[in-house]
What does this fold into?
Amino acid sequence: MDEALKLSPEGIQAEVDAALKDLVVAHRKGRTTFINLPLLYPDGSSVTVRVDAIRDRLRISDNGYAYREVHAVGAERSFAQTAWRILEDDGLSRDRDTIFVDVPADQAFRAICDVGMASWRITDRIYSQLPEDEEIEIEDSLTERLIEIFGESRVSRHDKLAGASTNEWDVTAAVTTESSRAVFQAVSNHPNSIFKTTAAFHDIRSLRQPPRLIAVVRDKAELGRKLALLSGLGRVIEIGQSEATYQRAAA
Amino acid sequence: MSVLPTIVAAEKLLAVFPGWSAPNSASQVVTFSAPLDIEGVTEAGLLLEGTARFDEPDQDFSLELVVRNLNGQRRIPLHRLDWRARKGGHSNHRRKCLGAMGGKRVPATHLHDFWMNWVESTGRMRGKNLPCARPIDEELQSVADVLRFCGNWFRINNIEVVEPPPWEYDLFHG
It folds into this structure.
């Protein structure tokens, strides 16, 4: 902000013009055109479409870029199903890792927008379903905390636990003491994290001899009304609470 | 996750170069995934991965240092060099990327540097796919230059075993 204020009006205009120049960029290679659009994938790169002339029509594709984005985070198994839901609505197609549509040349504008948006939406939807950064942060801190408090031999990280339905649930950690077994689950404020936890807790507590269930959150006040969803099924503590609180929760 | 800086800083050797894949029939993407050794031990899930496009010679080539299947995460990118990215320059996240590079745009050849994307205080990576990148100080004119740069920066001492992508050169590229 301070740097911008030091610029003259001409300097500011030059910065705006430079940004405008980069918003939409086309590169031609023979009968192929690549177009960088003013939309960003999660990694900060531009959504890019490829335009190929095929006889009297144009093939507009995303050149496999959405697939590469989700592959980068190991989520490529989600690609086909997520893409199918989005592409069907927009009348687009998929060939393996590439989204495309074939159109007459006078539909180029709309097709470029549709393919670019679809490529972005697929990536955005898959990324939004990945474990939240916050949940992973809480998970890591929680695991370290549990080891400090209970000792490494008593803590089983990334445990799997079958509920009454026999479905297996991934839990952050299980702690076994002489008198009890407790499951600690990291929960972020994201709805997916909360609902996943409530489903798991509901199933696990239906066991004949369920372990103690503890949801560990960053801040109870931030959860608001969703706190009641968790506390209806297990105990809730905050990641930063005292060792005594952890011991009481597990007892 | 606190093991990641140690992995990045360690001297590494490619255990084997497995060769490039056949081109994907739709996107023409070719890839390789090569395991890495640290002090004679092939480390579980530690890989150098390369991506290029069969029909785009001398363009759109990436090398990435990656850990797979650590702490429940399927894939954690650590360093990535994007050379002449067809997607153009990269835009740094305004909030996640601290310092002078936050919110800035970098050219089509850039480095997603581990040290820009690692948060020491929490022992975590920023975001999921290296949202922060910086320009490269030197001109990388060829695949050999890219390999040399990545060998130095990623600390892979025998990166020369990596073969160039199996590009198809046509009339436009000689």
